[in-house]
TrEMBL record:
<dbReference type="InterPro" id="IPR036237">
    <property type="entry name" value="Xyl_isomerase-like_sf"/>
</dbReference>
<feature type="domain" description="Xylose isomerase-like TIM barrel">
    <location>
        <begin position="29"/>
        <end position="265"/>
    </location>
</feature>
<dbReference type="Pfam" id="PF01261">
    <property type="entry name" value="AP_endonuc_2"/>
</dbReference>
<protein>
    <submittedName>
        <fullName>TIM barrel protein</fullName>
    </submittedName>
</protein>
<keyword id="KW-0413">Isomerase</keyword>
<dbReference type="InterPro" id="IPR013022">
    <property type="entry name" value="Xyl_isomerase-like_TIM-brl"/>
</dbReference>
<dbReference type="InterPro" id="IPR050417">
    <property type="entry name" value="Sugar_Epim/Isomerase"/>
</dbReference>
Length: 270
């Protein structure tokens, strides 16, 4: 398994669970100096960072791109895959498709979290799930054709009324026409929704394509009450070989949060 840390470059989501902010070069340098293998990027758009610059920084610091987030599509533009308006759904697919292409240039998957949306009043949940599946089928196929995986993230009940548990995510993936979609096991969301994090991970098995590393309170691992040894044992048992990426609050500050994260990663996976 490989360690990654989040960098957000979108001022509108500054209060979110991201370790580093704003300065891409400085953040990548700090991540590399601590021993992280990669960074996970949250940008405002697919063209927010020039690919040549990102390649140069990666080469300079010896660090990869673990994944790219798509959340700006919802935060900045109000786009989701389950909007009742077909035109909005189409724009959401187009935005994510562009993010897939951006990430694919670095061998990195795109993550669909908040852009999945909700079953809003007046829309049956089954209809919303059908729209979600339609989007995932289109985008999963595109990701596969570009040599990457599309990552779908079950969120807790306070953020979506669609898919909240890994088990339901596996069911959704099995219903798709594409095999280009994997699940994101976010330990914070799982702490809210799963009876046992370890059992859920074992059950989902090879359906897991990415892991978000955060404690029960969304602070860096070690600052909450998650029983991380059981989680680590389950991930090793599946076996999971991808990125363990810190999507956590920069508490008490970004540098200490990053240090705590890499220390915890080495403790459980080193």
């Amino acid at each position: 398994m490989k360690a990654a840390v989040t960098i957000a470059l979108v001022p509108d989501i500054k209060t979110g669970p991201w370790i580093y902010w704003h300065d891409l070069e400085t953040s990548m340098a700090k991540a590399a100096s601590l021993g992280f293998d990669a960074v996970e990027l949250f940008t405002a758009s697919p063209d927010a960072v020039a690919p040549d610059r990102l390649t140069a920084l990666g080469d300079q610091f010896g660090i990869k791109i673990a994944a790219v987030g798509t959340g700006a599509g919802k935060v900045l533009h109000g786009l989701t895959l389950t909007d009742p308006d077909a035109h909005v759904r189409s724009k959401a697919v187009a935005f994510i498709a562009d993010m897939i292409s951006f990430g694919a240039g670095f061998g990195a998957p795109a993550i669909i979290g908040s852009m999945q949306g909700n079953a809003v009043p007046g829309v049956e949940r089954e209809q919303a799930l059908a729209w979600l599946a339609d989007g995932l089928n289109i985008l999963g196929k595109q990701a596969h054709e570009q040599g990457v995986t599309l990552i779908y993230e079950p969120l807790n009940r306070y953020e979506t009324n669609l898919i909240n548990r890994l088990e339901d995510g596996v069911t959704l993936l099995k219903s798709l026409e594409t095999q280009g979609v994997k699940l994101l096991a976010d330990l914070f969301h799982m702490n809210i929704e799963e009876t046992s994090l370890a059992d859920s991970i074992r059950s989902a098995g090879s359906s897991i394509g990415h892991v978000h590393f955060a404690d029960s309170n969304r602070r860096p691992v070690g600052f909450g009450h998650t029983t991380m040894r059981e989680v680590a044992t389950a991930l090793q048992a599946i076996p999971y070989e991808g990125y363990i990426s810190a999507e956590a609050f920069p508490w008490p500050d970004p540098d200490q949060a990053a240090q705590q994260t890499i220390t915890a990663f080495k403790q459980y996976f080193g």
